[in-house]
Amino acid sequence: MVNSTNANSKDGVRRHIFQELNQETLVLDPKKSQNISILLRALNVTVDEVCEALLEGNADALGTELLESLIKMAPTKEEERKLKEFKDESPFKLGSAEAFLKAVLDIPFAFKRIDAMLYIANFDSDVEHLKRSFDTLE
């Protein structure tokens, strides 16, 4: 009886310490944060690759699918404000989705850039579609 109580208290202390070390700050809605994290893993890109492509305006480096996914990740004004106010000196670290969005938001007009890059990436196919539609009308 004494051994099992002692073991449980040690285990409880370990869990508590582990939770403190692994504690993440969630700025986004937990469901949105989870969806963004899943999407980032599925797209298999790094923060550096995305930021570099955004700074260079290189739509080809990211691809249409990734650009469309990035548009869906856009934070609300409130979430954007909270992410920009978050300081790295905090004892808590950001979750993967929040850290990704914070890095992207450090780029001026990041989501406007993404929108423009998506427009550029889709431009040729949109023009072709319109040409076929006009041919059908004629």
TrEMBL record:
One matching Pfam family: FH2
Domain FH2 span(s) in chain numbering: 1-138
Domain of life: Eukaryota
BP GO annotations: actin nucleation
GO molecular function: actin filament binding
Stated family: Belongs to the formin-like family. Class-I subfamily.
Name of protein: FH2 domain-containing protein
Taxonomic source organism: Erythranthe guttata
